[in-house]
Amino acid sequence: TARKQAEEKLRESEARFRCLFESSHDAIMTLEPPSWRFSSANPAALEMFGAVNEAEFTVQEPWALSPPRQPDGRDSVGKAREMIETALRAGSHFFEWTHRRISGEEFPATVLLSRMESGGKVFLQATVRDITANKRAEEDVRRERERLRRMVDSAQVGIAFLALDGAVQEANDALLWMLGWTRDEFAAHGLMWEAVSPPDHHEQEREAMAELVRTGATGTTERLVLHRDGR
Question: Would you place residue 18 in the very low, low, confident or very high pLDDT band (cuts 50, 70, 90)?
Fold first, then answer.
């Protein structure tokens, strides 16, 4: 009776796993030793890699669905084996990877390798997410930041970016020239008013900064500014 109950629980557990496996929007596949070829793949994985069916997918080795080298220049075969060994040793391993669809199209992805055991046999489950959209968004942000940086650097007025406590994060060349500081010297002051205001104005500037943060007010004000040479 106990054995029958254990077998029934195992069947129920396998059925739940199969349901999650098949319905997941993430691409999930399993790899088994010693060759570490793919042994199964859910519908999301087949769609991601452009496989017609599971049979076409499972004849592939993990490195066959990768370009010869990863973005860091490392050989995909050697690095894939290293990722597998790390997951087996640590229990799981999360990393970014450049994959290649069966059609030859490359795409960036995150991979979570998890060490699993069933019936006394150890295997790996890989959960893969296509992060092409994320990478494009990151590149768009990088380009926009670079565009803004060029605009700021080429401006004829002094511009500084501050943290909410008044700490200097960036200053353009016009401001540095205006005040007589090098970039490193200016950044070493920490707080903006320590670099550009007379000492007896520091408390006033600190209060003005706190008020700005509290209210979010914008506008133009006049300030007494101190040059590096004391003027």
Answer: low
pLDDT at 224: 83
**What would you report as the CA-atom Rg of the chain, rounded to the nearest whole angstrom?**
29
Query: How high does pLDDT run on average in the chain?
Result: 86
Sign, CA dihedral 177-178-180-186, equals negative
- Please work out, in degrees rounded to the nearest 5, the angle formed at the alpha carbon of residue 64 by the alpha carbons of 60 and 66: 130
Q: Which two tokens stand for residue 156?
A: 């004829």
Contact 79, 98 (CB under 8 A): no
pLDDT in tens, 61-95: 778 899 999 999 999 999 999 999 999 999 999 99
Cα end-to-end span (Å), the chain: 94
Query: How far apart are the C-alpha atoms of 108 and 76, rounded to whole Å?
Result: 13
Instruction: Round to whole Å and give the CA distance between 208 and 210.
Output: 5
Dist CA 141 CA 150 (whole Å): 14
Q: Give Cα 133 to chain centroid, integer Å.
A: 12
DSSP run (H or E) holding 170: strand 168-171
DSSP label of 191: B
